[in-house]
Amino acid sequence: MTTATTPHLVDLLRFNTCGSVDDGKSTLIGRLLYDSKSLMEDQIEALERSADITGGGQINLANLTDGLRAEREQGITIDVAYRYFATPHRKFIIADTPGHVQYTRNMVTGASTANLSIILIDARLGVIEQSRRHSCIASLLRIPHLVVAINKMDLVDWSEERFLEIKDQFDEFLPRLDIKDVKFIPVSALKGDNIVFPSPQTPWYPGPTLLGHLETVHIASDSNLSNFRFPVQWVNRPNNPTDHSLHDFRGLSGQIAGGVVRIGQKVMVLPSGFKSTIKQIWTLDGPLQEAFSPQSVTLVLEHDLDVSRGDMIVDAEDLPGASSDLHAKICWMNPRPLVAGKQYLLKHTNQTVKSVITSIEHKINITTLDKEDGITELAMNDLGEIRIKTAKPLIYDGYATNRLTGSFILIEPGTNSTVAAGMLMQPIDVAHPEYRDFAI
User: ∠ at Cα 309 (308, 312), nearest 5°?
Assistant: First the structure.
């Protein structure tokens, strides 16, 4: 059997834009796509056709992301819009998220998978409450990189003094945030200054353009490559009667949620606790000697164990947490408020379990990150800390350790509606020691 080398993974950056209403989020994305020549001819033609209707005779770049009729009529973003583009250096997925307070849940949805968040600030207004709110949400979601794009600099005569004043305002707030990588860039989304091309208006700014920063920001270490976690999505039993070599093939398929896996590595299947060794690692392109997050692979174990969807394969010497009593932060997304005692389905990685909300601990002020006690319910768009009891123990890591194995959603049983997005706190107990007694 020939062994393929580890395939080159496409360098993909997911980022979102956020900020207050009319700060220019959609225009910035439109300018980014337009100036980087990432638009199709029919998209450019559609922009030109709609110019007289929505743009006063000029191309309205915001229409590239504001696709809803209500968004174009009001000039605001309501839903999350995703756009895809690529340069010779990197591929990108953009989430244009709303600025209104009542659409906080949409912002959380769009930012939940982001490597980087762009906070837009109107140079005329400076740092306002919504700027702080979205920065706090980015911090809660553990987004590792932040760009503060100070927009509409053309309306303050490209004042370096104003740019530094706003930077100082944000720096005063920065210690509240758990974000280490913050970059400030002066831009004009409408005119295209410092978006794709450097602006002659800012000789005092020595840094990169927005696209230049997006192409070069280091994201290789954003994924957890220390703790091997593999939630099983599918048991792969090929049904090919003409290929006898596949007759006994039993692979376990899924996406690596964390860490690195190698042939010969000792692993444990949770929650059963059975141990085995990695025999083979397969991809569509052939076998590998090792694989790492976030690759999608099929693992073959040395032993024919009873493994099914929802089980998790981990390094035998590095166990995650295991508990049915969970402590989590959530963003509530349902018009009906959350109260203790309500039952929901909890979807975590590839499994869904019954759960009940046992208590509401705090409400989180998303402007200051302060905790508010004495709360009996969470309204739509509220963030809070809650306790949850599940029908069976969850195998998980804290969200701060692994965003994939530390996140979940709550589903309303009657309607199948997603009512909350959650982030699990660091587990107190690791998987039970008695699991080790089942070693083969």
Answer: 85
**Contact yes or no for 278/265 (Cβ under 8 A):** yes
User: Which residue is it, tokens 């080790």?
Assistant: 436
In sequence order, what are the residues at sequence separation of 6 or more whose Cβ sits closer than 8 angstroms to the Cβ of residue 211? 32, 36, 87, 195, 196
Sign of CA dihedral 201, 203, 204, 208: positive
pLDDT of residue 119: 92
Q: Nearest to residue 315, comparing CAs of 392, 422, 224?
A: 224
Domain enclosing residue 55, as ranges: 12-216
CATH number for the domain including 311? 2.40.30.10
Q: Is residue 436 part of a domain?
A: no
Task: Choose among 215, 25, 222, 218: nearest CA to 118.
Answer: 25
Residue 247, token pair as written in the block: 């007759």
Structure tokens given for 76:
């605001």
Measured distance CA(426)–CA(429) in Å, rounded: 9
pLDDT at 138: 87
211: region left, alpha or beta (phi > 0 left; psi from -120 to 50 alpha): alpha
Q: Which residues of 193-224 are buried (b: 16+ CB within 10 A; e: fewer)?
A: bbbbeebebbeebeebbbbbbbbebebeebbb
pTM: 0.82
Both structure tokens of 306: 């009873």
Which of 44, 38, 50 lies closest to 83, judged by CA?
Answer: 38
> Per the structure block, which two tokens stand in for 36?
């980087």
CA distance 55 to 48: 9
Of 341, 359, 378, 376, the C-alpha closest to 105 is 378
pLDDT the model gives residue 4: 44
Strand pairing report for 91-96 and 81-86: antiparallel
Alpha-carbon distance 328 to 364, whole Å?
12
Concatenated DSSP letters of 388-434? EEEEEEEEE--TTT-TTTTEEEEE-TTT--EEEEEEEPPPSSBSPGG
Last residue of a domain, one of 262, 297, 315: 315
Q: What pLDDT score does 202 carry?
A: 96
The identity of residue 26, as a single letter, is S
Query: Residue ranges of the chain with pLDDT lower than 50?
Result: 1-10, 52-55, 66-79, 433-440
Residue 384 maps to a domain: yes
